[in-house]
């Protein structure tokens, strides 16, 4: 430990009963940062007694010994931006080798920290890492305008830092400079959030993504859906997988969770909706959507690596036969999969070598459990990968629970960090702009809570939670008695029957060994009321007890069954609201149009045809058979577009009515029923929204992002 007397005279005033300096050879640049922070720290810690014992750590690493990942976790780029320098001189104090400098403000027991003076760098980092980010939130941004400087040199340095880091945005009302941790904070890392992150980074903005789910690697994915802890998202039970099931009164929702959002579990399909979607009265008056989205669909397909499915499996053969028998068109799907040579790993084939390595698809059928082979083009391999490589900050296991407007503009975002509910850390961040991209289940529920909070966003439109759409789906599993073919081999969805302009059928698969859904199934029956369905269910079991038992005990459901996904663009909407008795969870109400139902006659007839070809029987989820509650993997709406807050939550450029700098860019912004998998449409809408935000360089001295005049 370096004695206080060894410090330069102008730093001696920093050493007091509350300050311990654990010093190894390093640069005096970090001391200058602390000199600027010292005045702010003393004031803010006195005004917030809860923070008086907080450890404050500042680090320097001029020779790159810490590594980029550690620097990001310690928020070093923010500290360097405050100071306005990118490199440091390690020897201004006559010290010869670079190391870590730790300055700690302590109150009662400084001895514990003082004993850390000889500890390895890794232990010091471990001790202080969690506290540093919160410290930056508390006082870091204030350096630019409130810290007292001993001379004009430090003031000049701070101004340089503001210019480089854009900590100082301009309030359009007052014209005064304001300080923020980030230009944009994005809540969620699905299709809308990932696109926004990359495009904003490319435009020069400082961006943070907060994702409540985990960042999963190849070894983290479950091999089958029987591994519930790795598959399901049920954090109350300690399950932090990638797939969540939410049961509402009127719909059961299936969704993805984790870094990459729904791309982790979706079936890779990237269709463009039919014309009726773009011309739907619910939003056609806002723009010529088919024309405006056309170039963005092309960009989205290129970025996601979409190609026509080149394979033809026994399942595709069956689907083609049914299409020919019914006189309906059969087609292959466009999918986000790298086929290449099966099992062969090659350098990035998509982004001129800037992306990650990819491995040719081996047709295991595991697309919806998280691809462990590097073949599925999930968002962490394109948009998010490139954004992080170019400077994006992304925090997994960070659940946002508060967004509050700041006086003078901008927002404070509060989040809980950590995997364990018992050991979660609370942190807050500030940003000029916030983008909600957590999907319908995340965005709508969070906004409903914020609307109820007087300190949150009480001015949100009364249309929040309205116009929830389900793609009018029906899910039917056909469990076959035949054992000749392994129906699990292939990609998740490889073919499609277009039954009419508004409806289609797709076969879906899971990998061999994945049969957990059998525990949730009952024989498929139709009927619009409970009594009829129950009578038909009991009659089916009574007529075919042996077949029903054999189907329920099939040795490998994935190998010997076909999951049929029927979708149509029929308009009918729900409304999500906070629970009436307990506001802990959302509830649903029927709003307009046709009430969503699991009983769709055409879907049942198609399932019967397919069952005849594999000597099978049709089953549905218990919620569909007993309650006639449909299941959807494509929940949409809740923050729909409008021309005013009277009829919408956001405008046609995804800007939230009533709150400058707030955006909604995810499935909750979709304002009509696409009737197809919506992932490509969400991506295209996000590309369009980002194209309308000027670059940071163009914005300097002008209005804030997204406030350009409406086009058309």
What does this structure look like?
The chain has 712 residues and is of the alpha+beta class. The chain has 20 helices and 29 strands. The protein has a domain at 4-162. Strands 5, 6, 16, 17, 18, 19 and 29 form a 7-stranded mixed sheet that branches. A 7-stranded antiparallel sheet has the order 12-21-22-24-20-27-23. The longest helix has 20 residues, at 121-140. The chain is globular, with a radius of gyration of 28 Å. The model is unreliable at 1-177 and 706-712 (pLDDT under 50).
List keywords for this structure.
seven-stranded mixed beta sheet; 712 residues; disordered C terminus; disordered N terminus; seven-stranded antiparallel beta sheet; single chain; alpha+beta
In short:
The chain has 712 residues and is of the alpha+beta class. The strands form nine sheets. Strands 5, 6, 16, 17, 18, 19 and 29 form a seven-stranded mixed β-sheet that branches.
């Amino acid at each position: 430990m370096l004695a206080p007397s060894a410090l330069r005279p102008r730093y001696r005033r920093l050493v007091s009963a509350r300050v311990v300096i654990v010093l190894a050879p390093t640069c005096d640049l970090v001391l200058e940062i602390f000199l600027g922070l010292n005045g702010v720290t003393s004031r803010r810690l006195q005004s917030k007694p809860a923070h008086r014992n907080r450890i404050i750590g500042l680090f320097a690493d001029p020779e790159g010994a810490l590594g980029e990942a550690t620097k990001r976790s310690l928020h070093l780029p923010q500290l360097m931006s405050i100071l306005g320098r990118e490199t440091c001189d390690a020897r201004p104090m006559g010290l010869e080798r670079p190391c870590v400098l730790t300055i700690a403000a302590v109150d009662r027991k400084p001895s514990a920290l003082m004993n850390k003076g000889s500890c390895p760098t890794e232990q010091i980092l471990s001790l202080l890492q969690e506290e540093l980010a919160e410290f930056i939130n508390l006082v870091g941004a204030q350096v630019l305008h409130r810290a007292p400087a001993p001379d004009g040199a430090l003031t000049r340095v701070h101004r340089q830092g503001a210019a480089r880091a854009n900590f100082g945005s301009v309030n359009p009302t007052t014209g005064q400079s304001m300080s923020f941790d980030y230009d944009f904070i994005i809540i969620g890392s699905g299709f809308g959030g990932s696109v926004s992150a990359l495009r904003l980074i490319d435009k020069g903005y400082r961006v943070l993504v907060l994702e409540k789910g985990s960042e999963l690697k190849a070894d983290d994915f479950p091999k089958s859906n029987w591994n519930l802890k790795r598959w399901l998202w049920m954090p109350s039970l300690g399950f932090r997988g990638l797939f969540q099931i939410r049961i509402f009164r009127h719909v059961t929702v299936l969704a993805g969770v984790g870094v990459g959002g729904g791309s982790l579990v979706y079936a890779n399909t990237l269709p463009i909706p039919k014309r009726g979607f773009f011309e739907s009265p619910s939003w056609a008056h806002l723009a010529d959507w088919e024309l405006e989205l056309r170039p963005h669909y092309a960009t989205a397909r290129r970025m996601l690596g979409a190609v026509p499915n080149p394979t033809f499996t026994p399942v595709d053969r069956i689907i083609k036969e049914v299409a020919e028998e019914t006189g309906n068109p059969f087609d292959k799907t466009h999918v986000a999969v790298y086929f290449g040579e099966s099992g062969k790993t090659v350098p990035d084939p998509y982004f001129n070598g800037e992306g990650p390595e990819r491995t040719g698809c081996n047709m295991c059928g595991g697309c919806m459990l998280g691809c462990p082979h590097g073949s599925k083009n999930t968002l962490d391999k394109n948009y998010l990968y490139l954004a992080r490589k170019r400077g994006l900050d992304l925090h997994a296991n960070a659940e946002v629970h508060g967004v509050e407007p700041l006086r003078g503009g901008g927002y404070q975002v509060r989040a809980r960090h950590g995997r364990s509910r018992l050991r979660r850390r609370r942190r807050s961040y500030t940003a000029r702009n916030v983008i909600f991209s957590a999907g319908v289940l995340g965005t709508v529920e969070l906004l409903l809570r914020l609307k109820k909070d007087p300190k949150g966003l009480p001015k949100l439109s009364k249309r929040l939670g309205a116009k929830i759409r389900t793609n009018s789906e029906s899910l039917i599993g056909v469990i076959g008695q035949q054992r000749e073919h392994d129906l699990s081999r292939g990609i998740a969805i490889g073919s499609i029957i277009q039954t009419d302009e508004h409806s289609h059928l797709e076969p879906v698969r899971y990998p061999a060994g994945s049969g957990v859904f059998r525990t949730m199934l009952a024989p498929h029956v139709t009927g619009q009321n409970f009594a009829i369905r129950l009578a038909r269910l009991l009659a089916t079991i009574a007529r075919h007890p042996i077949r029903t038992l054999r189907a329920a005990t099939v040795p490998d459901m994935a190998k010997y069954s076909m999951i049929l996904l029927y979708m149509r663009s029929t308009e009918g909407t729900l409304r999500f609201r906070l629970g009436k008795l307990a506001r802990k969870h959302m509830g649903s109400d029927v709003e307009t149009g046709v009430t969503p139902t699991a009983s769709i006659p055409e879907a049942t007839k198609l399932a019967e045809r397919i069952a005849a070809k594999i000597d099978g029987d049709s089953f549905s989820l218990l919620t569909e058979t007993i309650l006639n509650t449909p299941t959807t993997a494509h929940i949409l709406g809740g923050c729909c577009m409008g021309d005013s807050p009277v009829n919408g939550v956001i405008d046609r450029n995804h800007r939230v009515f009533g709150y400058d700098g707030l955006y909604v860019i995810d499935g909750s912004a979709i304002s009509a029923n696409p009737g197809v998998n919506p992932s490509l449409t969400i991506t295209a809408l996000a590309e369009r929204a980002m194209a309308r935000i000027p670059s940071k360089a163009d914005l300097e001295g002008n209005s804030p992002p997204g406030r350009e005049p409406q086009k058309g």
